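User: Mind C-alpha cell order:
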Amino acid sequence: MDRRSLLKAGAVAVAGVALTGAATGTAAAAAGLPPVPGMLGDRRANELWYQLDEIALYQLSPEVKAAYDVFWPFIQQNAPEGLYAKWLELSGEPAYPGNYAEFAKPVEQPLRVLSKLQLDNFDHFYRGDEAGLVKAFAAFGQGILFDPRREPQQSEVHTMNGNPPSGYHFWHSVLRAQMFLGIDRHRWARLHPMIGFAWALQSIAKPDHRHVNPGLPPEQVRALARYWLPRSPVQLDDDFRSAPYPG
C-alpha cells in the first residue's frame, strides 16, 4: 500500500476517531482477546501497546537485546546530547538528509531489527485496518487506554512517558534514520503522520500516566486529524523541529 492508501484510511478514521474518546465503562471485546478486569478503552488498542512494551522493554528476544547492545552505546558515544539533538543539528545543514544517513549507517542492522519489531507488532493487530491503527494512535496520544496488567509502580495508562513526552522526538529521529537508510521506508512514511498526530494530541491532553483520562473533545480530535494525517515526511521534519510541543 502507498501513502495515498494511508490518507484514504485517515479520512475514514477522522469521522470515527472521536469514538475512542470515551474512557469510562468496560473495555470493548475484541476478537480473540480475553477480557481484562479493570481495563478501560479499546481492547485491541490496549493489547497493541501492551505487547509492544513486552517485546521492546520487558521480554527481549536475543536478537533485540543484541541490537540494543550495539545501538545504545553508539548513541551515547556519537550523540551524547541525545539522538534528537543530533538529528536537529544535522537536519539544519545543507547536506541533509545524506549527512544523517551517513551518521546512522554504523547502526543500520540494529535499526533493521527494531523496525521489524515494531512493524510486526502493528501488523499483528492491525494488518489491513489502517483506520483502526489511526484510532489506536489517537487513543495512545490522549491517554485513554487504561491497562491494569503492569506492576503497581509502573504506568497503567498506555501513552508516551514523560511530561512533556520527549519520546515522540526520539521516535521521529529513529524512523528518519531508518527511512534514509532504506529500511521499510514506505511503511514508516505511512506511520509517520500517526506519530505526529499522537504527539499533538498528547501535547494538548497532557494525560495522567497513572489514572484514566477523559479524552479531548471530538471536534478537536477531528481537527488535529485533518492537519496531521496528510503530512509528508518533509513537512513532519518541520513539525518536529519544534520541541517539546508542536509550534
In short: The mean pLDDT is 89. Residues 185-205 form the longest helix (21 residues). The CA atoms of residues 111 and 178 lie 6 Å apart.
